[in-house]
Amino acid sequence: MAHIHLEDGAFTLQWISVWWLLAIVLISLCLYWMRKKGIDSKTITIAGMLTAASFAIFQVNMPLFGGVHMNLTPLIGILGGPALGGVIVLIVNILSAAIGHGGWGMIGANVLVNMTEVSAAYGTYKWLGKTKVSTFARAGTAVLIGLFLGNIVMIAIILISGVQGVTQNRIDMLYGLSLLAGVNMGVAVIEAIVTGYIVSYIERVRPDMLRGVEDHV
Amino acid sequence: MFKTNDKKGLVIFGVLILVFLTLSIAAYVTSGHMGIEERFNNAVGIHADSEEEGPSGIFGFNIEGNLVSYVIIASALIIICAVLYTRSKL
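Above: the input entities. Below: the structure tokens describing the complete assembly.
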């Protein structure tokens, strides 16, 4: 849901390269981990479905707060795990840039933001499993925490990189981005409720799909 | 009806929802009504021309980026999923 919605050219080439490089390192680690653990056809099918669902919903601009969108990254984390989730968000970001939603140069930075959401949601969901709270509350809380951390990483990346051609200082930028993150968290509430219901439903009809959350790659 | 831990989990989730909803309404009132790109440009200090009014879509929902490319890619992904689903016997 947190997504750096800036055009190519907003960051300097140096920072675009840094974020791309970091994203490539993380994706390489994900691929290495997946290769080490092995991946079956069932997991690939789930990954395909998560990619399709995330891509489809990510492009839909919702008429709320003037225009916002969801991207289901926490659901990807809960069902797919952090390693598979990392690869999925890379594909979704590439496909999104291909249709003109987000710049090509921003893919590296956006992958880092989305990987934070995926990993934090997965970690929170798994951790809350020890407390034996209901699946709905567990998944919903995981979404809120994942998306909150995603917004923080998004703000950090923009503040570190700076934006070319603006006169605004970092403090004003932090204020503006905090308001933006605040609005984003309103959408996170909707995404938390939707994801909570989806995960609860999956647990009821296909619990085997969630069983893997304990030993995800 | 609910176990104690269930109740506790729902209460924590409810409190988080209330906190984030309050924050988001406050942020929206402070920043004003604007589209995603306009909100982003405003936040970082880019003075772009005001966002062009695109098609209003269905009930205000519309697609970002190129609609034709979106339909093509989404259709391809759905076909891939159907093939994977039938082959993996998920």
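Note for the figure: The domain at 13-59+66-214 of chain A is CATH 1.10.1760.20 (Arp2/3 complex 21 kDa subunit ARPC3).
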